[in-house]
Amino acid sequence: MPRFAANLTMMYTEHGFLDRFAAAAKDGFTAVEFLFPYEYPAQTIAALLKQHGLCQVLFNAPPGNWQAGERGNTALPGREDEFRSGFERALEYARVLGCPRIHCMAGLVPAGGDRVLMRKVYIANLAWAAKLAKPDGVDVLIEPIALRNIPGYFLNRQDEAHDLAEEIGAPNLKILMDLFHCQVEEGDLAMKMRKYLADPKRTRVGHFQVAGVPERHEPDTGEVNYEYVFAVMDELGHEGWVGCEYAPRAGTSAGLGWFKRQPMGLR
User: Fold this and answer.
1) Count of H-run helices and E-run strands, the chain
2) Which CATH number characterizes residue 32's domain?
3) In the chain, which ranges are continuous DSSP H helix?
4) Which pLDDT does position 266 carry in this prediction?
5) What is the structure's pLDDT at 265?
6) Is residue 267 part of a domain?
7) From CA 207, how far away is CA 176, in angstroms rounded?
8) Residue 266 within a domain
9) Which residues does the chain have with pLDDT short of 50?
């Protein structure tokens, strides 16, 4: 069965951020992910990971001005220096945390924005980041995000992401396949998984995330049968992590019945 990582940005919000590591470990998680670590020294987070027997599997590069509504800068013309300095900072954190994946958010298409130019900038920045991260064994991830959830986001569909990755050709440039966003934007999850994971040794899918659709609660609610989806992952030989990027309905620990039913859930 899949291995699950608690997303500490969306889960365990009953606790302060630095207390969420202990809460996740207490509930049986052995891995965590989150959006951004930059409010805290990398050594502080690394110590919590070690203390609670957790591994860090994913976090995001700096996204620009998040509080002002920005959602990444990887594809934004004129922001190349900002993106690259931010990615260098992310890579420093990845080294300290032992994290093998960094997600680079593309950004929003401005009114009247030139998508052709944005694609060129996106490709150049991703190729640069993948080359920089390769000696550290770090994968650079890109994620298609549903327009319902982030209107104007540059990258929305799985085929677009895979076409970009193929064009760039870097072996450590991978796709973050968020099944919540994929279902909202496209649907047909099982067939897309079978298409893009047909050869588990060559797939560009580097990470999964899950949440119930449409409310983004636990993955045992809504229109997606995740028990079936998890079985498809097994069928396709997926051995990576599955990030639990959802907003619990009524307390994180109380909503983990789905997790504790998984054969590997408490390892």
Assistant:
1) 9, 8
2) 3.20.20.150
3) 20-26, 42-51, 80-97, 115-133, 158-168, 179-185, 189-196, 226-235, 257-260
4) 43
5) 45
6) no
7) 5
8) no
9) 265-267
pLDDT at 264: 58
- Which positions are annotated as active-site residues? 143, 245
d(CA 208, CA 180): 10
Domain count, the chain: 1
Which residues are CB-neighbours of 47 under 8 A, at least 6 positions away? none
Average pLDDT, the chain: 96
pTM of structure = 0.97
In a domain, 82, yes or no: yes
Domain that holds residue 140: 3-260
CA-based nearest residue to 147, from 179, 182, 196: 182
Nearest to 52 by CA among 107, 83, 8, 108: 8
pLDDT tens track for 91-105: 999 999 999 999 999
The pLDDT of residue 267 is 42
Q: How far apart are CA 34 and CA 245, in angstroms?
A: 9
